[in-house]
Amino acid sequence: MRYLTAGESHGPQLTTIIEGIPAQLELVAEDINTDLARRQGGYGRGRRMQIEKDQVQILSGVRHGRTTGAPVALVVENKDWTHWTKIMGAEPLDGEEEKEVKRKLTRPRPGHADLNGAIKYGHRDMRNVLERSSARETTVRVAAGAVAKKILAQFGISVGGHVLEIGGVKAENVAYESVKDLQERSEASQVRCLDEEASQKMMEAIDKAKQDGDSIGGIVEVVIENVPVGLGSHVHYDRKLDAKIAAAVMSINAFKGVEIGIGFEAASLPGSQVHDEIIWDEEHGYRRKTNRLGGFEGGMTTGMPIVVRGVMKPIPTLYKPLQSVDIETKEPFAASIERSDSCAVPAASVVAEAVVAWEIANALLETFGADRIDIIQGNVKRHQDEARKF
Ligand SMILES: Cc1cc2nc3c(=O)[nH]c(=O)nc-3n(C[C@H](O)[C@H](O)[C@H](O)COP(=O)(O)O)c2cc1C
Ligand SMILES: C=C(O[C@@H]1CC(C(=O)O)=C[C@@H](OP(=O)(O)O)[C@H]1O)C(=O)O
To answer: Topology of 2-389 in CATH?
Structure first.
């Protein structure tokens, strides 16, 4: 499968076209809208989320609630668009209005794409960069991820995400019984954290950052359960699935690091406390006694749950001014802004679920692919039976 996204933050809509979805997958807008609403939620978001009510339109590739095998085009409208038609250049302007509306953005925000994008693409008006670098684009990545999750569900594979840390507040008690348990309990927290006490402290940290005109980041975790052994490959660098997942998580706006399993902790532990011992029984086949390596060995899935973490830096747009330079006057200035999220870590956990789900679904189709869901189900079952006895 592959997909492209298009659309600006304050344009009319976000669009994605997904190619390669097998036929006979049941798919309705509601399968996608649930995740769109989850991405909009979470404590710490700014006023934009009160304007948007993200809903997908499925424009092709589905008839009577089933995929046909043709490309699936998905669209999410920007409700805010009606306020931006002049600024975005879609409506004629007159006189004085023109001067005001065409005012260029010349003051780059430290930590955003503004300055680099402007220099690279030759834009004296940095809105031409901001519009596309905005994380508004993650709306349709979540839509594509929801389709990937629907594919995975046909094989009993489930995806959950939660928040481990916000602004230095670490969740302590994050044990869960299954991905279903993780999903239900993270959903009950406004910061998508399993630890109730930490949830409260995280919200307080977000309130404080907001009051201080500052922003905070954090750590999210995605867990995928019931993945067949052998997705990805050891044979070539660009077929290693752990590498693809790392790239996908790093591609989320503001993500600065990724780890799989115990990740960076492995640096300080002896091998005997890192590698997972192998066991076998008739019912389950091969398993690992522990899952410190987070479901990967040799760029391939081990069949144990996949555990991926990503770190999100604090949001770059700050109410508290940071120094920057106006590209017209070359004078320093201290930026002040109108609206922004103060923390989007809970929302980003939903984006992380989506991009990881996409990579797993894609790897599954690469290994067992066919044009129809029912044939792929047969292929997976045969593989799992064989792997158990191997
Ligand atoms: C869900 C989500 C919401 C975000 N909201 C904002 C925001 O309101 N203001 C902002 O400046 N950055 C926000 N960001 C982060 C920027 O999009 C990001 O920092 C920017 O694109 C620069 O990319 P980089 O941080 O990966 O270098 C958000 C990111 C995510 C994932
Ligand atoms: C619109 C979304 O997030 C936006 C991401 C974002 C940024 O710079 O990344 C900046 C803000 O946009 P605005 O300036 O219009 O308020 C966020 O609201 C969204 O997540 O749907």
So the answer is: Chorismate synthase, AroC fold (3.60.150)
Confidence (pTM):
0.97
Element housing 182 (H / E): helix 179-187
pLDDT band at 97 (very low <50, low <70, confident <90, very high): confident
Question: 72-82: string of b/e by CB count within 10 Å (b at 16+)?
Answer: bbbbbbbeebe
CA-wise closest residue to 285 among 178, 155, 383: 383
Q: How far is the CA of 326 from the centre of ligand 2 (A)?
A: 22
Token duo for residue 384: 């799992």
**Span 316-329, mean pLDDT?**
92
- Using CB atoms within 10 A of its CB, is residue 241 exposed (0-12), middle (13-18) or buried (19+)? buried
The closest ligand to the CA of 130 turns out to be 2
Q: What is the pLDDT of residues 144-164, one digit of tens each?
A: 999 999 999 999 999 999 999
Q: Is 342 in the pocket of ligand 2 (CB under 6 A)?
A: no
* Residue in the block written with tokens 């060995």: 297
User: 5, 74, 63: which is closest to 33 by C-alpha?
Assistant: 74
This model of the complex carries an ipTM of 0.98
Specify binding-site residues for FMN. Answer: 132-134, 253-254, 298, 313-317, 339
Q: Please state the separation of Cα 292 from the chain's center in Å.
A: 23
Question: pLDDT at residue 335 above 70?
Answer: no
- What sign does the CA torsion over 32, 35, 37, 40 have? negative
Model pLDDT for residues 228-261, shown as the tens digit of each residue: 999 999 999 999 999 999 999 999 999 999 999 9
Which residues, in sequence order, are CB contacts of 347 under 8 Å at separation 6+? 39, 40, 41, 42, 45, 341
Query: In terms of Cα–Cα distance, which of 367, 219, 239, 245 is closest to 306?
Result: 245
Distance between CA 349 and CA 221 in Å, rounded?
7
